[in-house]
Amino acid sequence: MTKFPRVFITGMGAVSALGLGIGPLWDAVRAGKSGVRDIEMPRTANQLIRKAAHLDAFDPGAFLAPDTVKYSDRFAQMALIAAGEMLADAGWPTGEPLGNGTAVLIGSGLGGAGTTDREYHKFYSTRERTDPLTVPKVMSNAAASHVSMAYGARGPSLAVSSACSSASQAIGLGLMLLRMGAAERAIVGGSECLLVPGVFRAWEALRVMTPTLCRPFSKGRDGMVLGEGAALIMLETEAAAQARGARPLAELAGFGSTSDAGDIVRPDAESAARAMQLALTDAGIAPSGIGYVNAHGTGTVLNDRSESEALRLVFGAHLEGLAVSSTKPAHGHALGAAGALELAITVCALRDDIAPPTINWTGADTDCISAPVPNVAQARPIAAAMSNSFAFGGINASLIVRKVS
């Protein structure tokens, strides 16, 4: 059996509705605070849903050069800001290029949605000139390319676009690249800024968004809440981290991904369970070794029911005492960035031995897990943790992190 090198997480950065940085994200999630607030969509008649997790007063010019702002969409700008925090957290020397040995893999479901919406509106409704930079702004690989250019990362650079599993698959693929020796470090994660009129209206048409509060696994839940943000994570092989004296935050120990090969929107519990089991096998950890699961937990009736069934299939009797929670009511469902935001939260939970709460929970549903860390964080020992992402298209991804010993 091939022995792969260990891969460590050595830095993290985030931008979310809860603020700029990993610190504000984790502090709010742990305390049960939410970044969901009222939102008014321009150019939209009869807006049905009035809430989303969005970052108010976001000024990319305070962090990025004017030309960078000019040539990029909001989703790439958020990725660049998250990358800056991540590199500082990793202790990477300021101004030193990341070089040939660094890969960049950033997931996004929609790419430059803001630019797309704005330029389509110009084309169909006004006589304004189309922005000649539209194509490089909207392409899904723009975030990965801008981060590569900004920090001199000359290894493999690519975008992963698999809806709500985009970031988790980007992280998992980064792990695989490092294990196979294609790079010695990787910047991985996701970025999504989809709170624009056309996209928001399309989600309204699906009838999966709550008009009130997102309540994952709770009795009476009635839908999800959209969010925006970015999270990037530095992965390094053990040898690369040791060579520069990096401080590991956690080991990225396992990755599993499956396809339902079934319905485009209806989840399949057995396929989701198989992704979790593959991640456990990859990490060499028994189900009983997991102390916390950050669930996909969107708050929709079907997703929460299916994920609960999958968790029962994987964890069996251990599920009764296992801390499982969804943090989406706090930071929103950021689609292609969700898995990265949630893995960053999972690493913080692992570090602090605290399972963050599922806020807005009002009571058990017989179809769901019975007590998803309801409303208040729980202190408990966590040696290893799992983060799940399940996407439209039947794409499932599970990641496992454990403490570095």
Descriptive notes:
The protein has helices spanning about 20-30, 65-70, 75-90, 115-125, 135-140, 140-150, 165-180, 195-205, 240-245, 270-285, 300-315, 330, 340-350; strands at about 5-15, 20, 35-40, 50-55, 100-105, 155-160, 185-190, 230-235, 250-260, 290-295, 325, 355, 380, 385-390, 395-400. Strands 1, 2, 5, 6, 7, 8, 9, 10, 11, 14 and 15 form an 11-stranded mixed β-sheet that branches. Strands 3-4 form a two-stranded antiparallel ribbon. The chain contains 13 helices and 15 strands. The protein has 2 domains: about 5-245, Thiolase/Chalcone synthase (Peroxisomal Thiolase, Chain A, domain 1, 3-Layer(aba) Sandwich), CATH 3.40.47.10; about 255-395, Peroxisomal Thiolase, Chain A, domain 1 (3-Layer(aba) Sandwich), CATH 3.40.47.10. It has about 400 residues and is an alpha/beta fold. The mean pLDDT is about 95. It is about 35% helix and about 20% strand. The longest helix is centred in the N-terminal third of the chain and has 16 residues, at about 75-90.
Write a concise keyword list for the protein shown above.
single chain; 405 residues; alpha/beta; Peroxisomal Thiolase, Chain A, domain 1; 2 domains; eleven-stranded mixed beta sheet; two-stranded antiparallel ribbon; 13 helices; 34% helix; 20% strand; globular
